Amino acid sequence: MVIRETETSMPLPCAPPGQVMEISTIIGGHGLCQKLTSMGIIPGSCIKVNEGHRSGPLIIDIKGSRIALGCGVAQKIMVKERKDG
Predict the structure, then answer these.
(1) At 64, which CATH number?
(2) What domain range is 45 assigned to?
(3) How many domains does the chain have?
(4) Residue 55's Cα: distance from chain center in Å?
(5) Tell me: the pLDDT tens digits for 22-59?
(6) Distance from C-alpha of 20 to C-alpha of 32, rounded to nearest angstrom
(7) At CB < 8 A and 24+ separation, what contacts does 70-77 make?
(8) Confidence (pTM)
(9) Percent share of the chain, pLDDT over 70
């Protein structure tokens, strides 16, 4: 299942640490999408990578919460630069 398509996005682990990004797409099955949705990780939400590495777990901030995501899950979250305004 793919939730919302975008033209310019990158996997979450490729996002620069400390930069606020917008979630553009979630690529995964129903179970993964449901789990991420329950944590507030949905397209259109802003997310910031605090710590992590492209091949290890990521620590993110989203909606006032700090969450750790495994690399495999993080790779399925596509983000893009946030449009200020």
Answers:
(1) 2.30.30.90
(2) 2-81
(3) 1
(4) 15
(5) 999 999 999 999 999 999 999 999 999 987 766 778 99
(6) 23
(7) 71/13, 73/32, 73/36, 74/11, 74/12, 74/13, 75/11, 75/12, 75/13, 76/11, 76/26, 76/27, 76/28, 76/32, 77/11, 77/12, 77/23, 77/25, 77/26, 77/36, 77/41, 77/47
(8) 0.84
(9) 87
